[in-house]
Model the fold of this input.
Amino acid sequence: MRYNRLIELRYSSEAAVSKRERVRRELLQGSPHLGGGDISRIYQSDLASLFDLYDKIFFHSYFHEHFLGQLFFSLSTRMVKNAGKTLCPRNLKELSPAEERYELRISAILLFNYGILERDKVVSGIRTRDSLEALQLVFEHELCHLIELHCYKESSCRRARFQSLAFNIFGHTGSTHQLPVAAEVGREKYGLSVGDWVTFQHDGGKLSGIISRITRRATVMVPDDGGVYQDQGGRRYSKYYVPLQLLRRR
Ligand SMILES: [Zn+2]
Done:
C-alpha cells in the first residue's frame, strides 16, 4: 500500500537532525524574505517552500508524486496559544483522494514573540536555538497530523500512534511547545496578569480598569455607568483593547 511509504518512514535522531539542518539551509538559500534564523517577516510562500523541502528531504517526494488532493498554507496573527493547526474537511472519510484538502496554519505571533523572553524554548521535546528552528518543529508536528489525516482520516497528537510517527520520522519526544504565549509575555515582560487593576491614557484622559484577558493586547474592563457589559453584581463596564506596553499597574 502506498501509504506505507509514509507511515513506515524511520530515521535515527541524528539523521533527522541533519535532514532538518538541510531543510533550513535550502529554505534560507531560496527565500527572498528570510534573512536568517530570527524570523521578522514570513509569507505563505515560505511555508509552501518549506513543505516542498520536507517532502523532498524527509518523504522521498511522496506528496509530489502521489498526493492528488490540495494543500494550503496560512499564517495566523490570531492564534495566540496554539503554534500550529492542521485543518481538514469534516467529511474527510467520504472524500476521494482527489477531493482531500488540508490547510496547515502556523501562528505568526508565536514566531515573532520568540525572542521576547530569555529562556529555553522547547518544541516537541527539542530545544530550539531560534525562531526558524521553532517554526520547523511546529511545522513537523503539523506534517505528522497531515500524514495521519491522509493515511487514517483522523489524527490526534495525544495518542500513541501520532507520537510514534513523530518520533520515528523527526525524533520528537513531546507533542507540545513551550514558546512564549501572550499571558506569559504579559506577566514576565510587563508584570501584568488577568485580574490586575491598570490605568491607561485614552482621549487625553486617564482611565482605569481591570484586565480580563491578555492576547496580543489586553482587554481592560473600565467601570462605566453607561457601559454595555455588566458583572454579576450589576456593575457596568466598557471594554477597551490596549497594547500591554501602554498599561500601568494601579
Ligand atoms: Zn497536534
Summary: Residues 10 and 169 are 5 Å apart (CA to CA).
